[in-house]
Design goal:
This protein is of the alpha/beta class and 643 residues long. The chain contains 21 helices and 18 strands. The strands form 4 sheets. The chain has a 6-stranded mixed sheet with strand order 5-6-7-3-8-9, with helices on both faces. Strands 14-15-16-12-17-18 form a 6-stranded mixed sheet, sandwiched between helices. It has a 3-stranded antiparallel sheet with strand order 2-1-4, with no helix packed on it. The radius of gyration is 31 Å and the shape is globular.
Length: 643
Amino acid sequence: MISVNNLSVQFTGQNLFDNVTFNIGDRDRIGLVGKNGAGKSTLLKILCGWQEPETGVIVVASGQTVGYLPQEMVPSGSRTVIDEALTAFETIDALERQQAELSMQVSERTDYESADYERLLTQLHDVTERIAVLGGASRQEQAEKILLGLGFHHSDFKRPITEFSGGWQMRVELAKLLLKRPDFLLLDEPTNHLDIESIQWLESFLQSYPGAVLLVSHDRTFLDNITNRTIEITAGRIYDYKASYSEYVVLMQERRASQMASLTNQQRQVAQIEAFIERFRYKATKSKQVQSRIKMLEKMDTITVDEVSTESIHFQFPPAPHSGKIVVEAEHLGKAYGEKQVFDNVDLTILKGSKVAFVGRNGEGKSTLAKIIVGDIHDQTGLCKIGHQVQIGYYAQNQAAMLDGEKTVFQTIDDIAQGDIRPKIRNILGSFLFDSDDIDKKVKVLSGGEKARLALAKLLLTPSNLLVLDEPTNHLDMNSKDILKNALLQYDGTLILVSHDRDFLQGLTDSLYEFRDGEVHEFKGDIFEFLEYRKIENLKALEVAKKQTASSQPVVSQNKLNYQQSKERERELRKLRSVVEKIEKEIESLEEEIASKDALLASGSSESTNPEFYKSYQQLKDTLEQKMSDWEEATIAVEEFLN
C-alpha cells in the first residue's frame, strides 16, 4: 500500500495540494482527474519519488516497487527494439550474475558438511527460485508478447529504436515499464501515442494487472473500462469516489449542487441572525440573545463551494460552401516509402455531407491518405480526384508543431485573416481562451493545449466544405473535446477524421475506413459496432466465417452477416447480465431487511419476541440463501457465455 499523509505543494504562490491524505491499495484501479494545472502530473511525480513535497509524508510498503510513465520523455541509446525492451529485466540479469557466482563457489568447495557450505546452497536456492518467480526463463517471450500488443511487428524487433518516431519510442518505454511489473503502476496519458487496437490491448492488460494502477487520461472510454475509483483534484483538495469516471461525473455534479444548496441555506440563516442582531442590538432585554447570536456567527464555519472552471472554448464552423456530389474519389490508389508499400489498389468514394473516420494501427497509412487528399503528397500511384468546388480545411497531426514559434498568437491569425474577419480576430481568439495578455505571447512559449487551440482557431478563418482532421483531440481536455465534437456534429460539410479516441468518434461518423495490412476497407456503422465486429473476427467466434470461402459469398454480405450475429450476441449477453443485476438488487434488499431484524434482536425489542417475527426472519434467511444460489448460477452463465 502507498500512504499519502498531509501532502502540501505550492506552485507560483498557489496551493496545488493542501494537507491531502489518501491511500492506494494493492489492487486499486484509480483514475486521477482535475482541470489542466490542477496538479495531476505533479502528484504522480511525487508518488514515484521524482519530486519532493513541501510538507507531508509518502510511505510505500516495504519491498514494494513503483513504476512511472510520464507524458513525454526522451529515450536514449541505440539498441534494437527487442534489446531495449529486455533491459526491463535488469533485476533478473543481476540475479543471474549472482547465481553464476554462487554456483562457481559451490563447485569449488569440498567441505560438504560445513555450515558455510549449507549457507551457500541456501543462497543459491533462494536466488534460483527468485529468478523463476520473476519469469527469467520466459523473458524473450514476455517482451515479444507486449511489444506485439503495443503495435510492433516481428520485423521491427531487430531495428534500432532511433529509426522510430518519438511516439513509437514511447511505446518501447511503456513496454519496459509493463515488463518490470511494479507493484504500483503510475501512467500519465498512456494512450497519447497509441492507436485504437493498442489501446484495447492495453486496457485488457491493465484489467488483469496483478498490482495497483493509477492513471491520468482524457480518454473517457479508457478510464471507464479500467478504473473503479476516481480521485478528483480541485482547489488544493481531493475528493475520493469509489466509482468509474462516468459515475464520478454524476456524483461530482450532485456534490456541487448539494454544496450550493447548503451555502444558500447558510447565507439565509446568517441574514436572519444579522437582522435579529441589528434589530435588538440596543434593547437591554434582548442583550443575552444578541450576544448568543454574535457568538453563533463567530463559530460558524463558512460553507465553500468547490471552484468550477467556467472557461471553455466555444465556436462553430462557418457554413460550408456548395460543392459537387462526389467530394473525394480514389481508384487503384497506392503509396510506398522506399520498399515499404503502405497501401495499394485502394478504391473509395466519399460523397458530399459524409462524415467518415480513418481507423487502424499507426503506420498503416491513415495520415498518408489524408495528406494525399489535401495535396501534401503527390508521388502516389493510381488516381485521387478531388470533386468540383471542394475547398479543404486541414488539421495535420503535427499541426501545433507546424506553427511559427517566433510569431505571436495575434500575428498567427492576422496573417491569414481577410476582409470582414480581421476586426473580429480578438473575439475569435477569445473564443479559444486567449485573453488580452495571451495574444502577444510568442507561439513557442505556449503549452501543447494552447497550440492545439490556436491551430483549431485557424480552421475557422477560411470557409471549407471538406474538413480533414488528423488527431485533432491530442492535447485537448475533455471539455474542449466535447465542444469540438458538438461543433463537428453541426458542421454541414464533409468530414474526414483520423482519431484513436473512441468516445470522440462515437456518434460522429456514419462510416469507417479500416487501414490494415496494406488494404483499406469500408465499414458501415459506429466505432463501437466496428470494434465489436473486429473482436469477434479476431477471436474466430463466428463458425460461419470459417466455412465461407471468398468465392462463395461477397465480402460485403459476409460483413453484414458478421455484424448481425455480433448484435445478436450482444443482446443475449445483455439478457444474461440483466438477470445477474436483478438478483443482486434482490439480495441487497433481503440483506437490508435481515440487518434491520438483527438490530431489533440486538436491542431486545418486544417486537423481536413475537413468534411471527422469528418465522419471517427465518423465511428471509432461506430466501437469501436461495437467491445467492441463483446469483451464482447466473454469474457462471455469463462467464461461460463470454468464454
